[in-house]
């Protein structure tokens, strides 16, 4: 199962200002049934780095997406312009969309504002004035997940959340 689509550039800017739009590729294990998940990531990234930019009159950063089945069991990885952004095996499961958007941003154009999806670093780099790029962050920002139960909400720590992400995928 392979899907691919490209859209023509809606407008051309001057050659000095023009940036070649990126190519998103997601490779997934067909036997694991991860096609729908791959489509969802593809849709979300295309919306963020293509459609919303066009709506603002900006040049799109992604112009092509490819979703391809892999024969390797358990395989799921994402690449931008043939540069690995996420590998399920080495990065520990499926990524949080916010983290993926920040990694894609670092590859395509670090100056892009992702709005509420922008990772705000809460570690000591803010105090020292040094910058930390999103591609190097794995847990440099605080994440809280609440499970709504009958009696009260339960807050999970980072280890419990990682375990749940591995079990259930994207949350």
From TrEMBL:
Residues 1-21 are annotated as: Disordered. Gene3D superfamilies: Glutaredoxin. The keyword Transferase does not apply. Transmembrane segments: none annotated. Keywords: Redox-active center. It holds the Pfam family Rdx. This is SelT-like protein.
